[in-house]
Amino acid sequence: MKQACILGLLAAAICWARASESVTLTQITIDSSSDSGPEWSPDGNQIAFVSDRAGNSDIWVMNADGGNPTQLTFNPAREDGHSWSPDGQWIIFDTDRHGPAEEFYLIPATGGAETRVTFNSRRELESSWAFTGDWITCHSFFSQWEIVIYNAFSGVLLYLVTDHPALDAEPGFSPAQDRVVFRSDRTGNNEIWIAPIPAGQQGTQVTFSPGDDIQPHWSPNQNLITFCSDRLQGGSNGTAPVGVAGDENLAVLELDIWITNETGSFTVPVTTGGQFDQRPRWSPDGSRIAFQSHRNGNWDIYIADDLPLQVPVEPATWGMVKARFAGE
Fold this sequence. Notes:
Layout: H1 2-21, E1 24-27, E2 35-40, E3 46-51, E4 58-63, E5 70-71, E6 79-84, E7 90-95, E8 103-108, E9 115-116, E10 124-129, E11 135-141, E12 145-151, E13 157-160, E14 168-173, E15 179-184, E16 191-196, E17 204-205, E18 213-218, E19 225-229, E20 256-260, E21 267-269, E22 277-282, E23 289-293, E24 300-305, H2 318-326
Antiparallel strand pairs: 1-24, 2-3, 3-4, 4-5, 6-7, 7-8, 8-9, 10-11, 11-12, 12-13, 14-15, 15-16, 16-17, 18-19, 19-20, 20-21, 22-23, 23-24
Helix pairs in contact: 1-2
């Protein structure tokens, strides 16, 4: 019976590998600088990203094939946590140019004068603009990291979505804008959760992995969520650093890109090599995923095509398989 369980787990792992074999990966930034944080424009024709190719962490925009990279911000401070307005006219980003309390700024997507949006003593990180309207969600530090919603133009705090002693971070809207997906360590390690808008409930857990599941992003046109995880590497049991101050701490994690649905009943990997693949983002038509990877020795941006969207497999991890063998 025990052997049958082990064989079943191995078969599931093999299914994972086969599911990801058909995925096509295309590297769209190829240089010695650090390029990270891809964010698709609403029409899918451009990608905003963060690069230090000019000597500092700034916001850039390029064509979706990597062509015509254009620098938007020119400030010695760090810029990151960016997202597009639904009409494609604006990009919002967070910056530490005012000290440790990061604030949000707006800049036209074609470049130009910047406008400061938030003025408070909290740290505001990782903005995600709603699919329509003026809402952005982010994580903000009160006594702990919580999920909040702001007006993107006025900076008015609209909703405190979570109010929990655990760390809640990296939110994104559902297509209907009635819920947010985020990651939380409230069960002891980082898992994907969903919470309603407005607040009133503490949310529903989506993933149940011995590793860390982080950086979720909801597909704009279907019931699917992409995220990254170290579950195929056996998991870290919540001990690996996954700091919300920036992605620099995540470089030590061997992460892969995954897809699940909002109930967690469908879970399948996009990459399986443990090659430091992070920050996945769906294209506007839900057919592609852009992500950053350290697989070639520095951060570059890749696009995954031919996604395994209809290949549900039984939940298992290499760590679970190894644990079963170790128990023989």
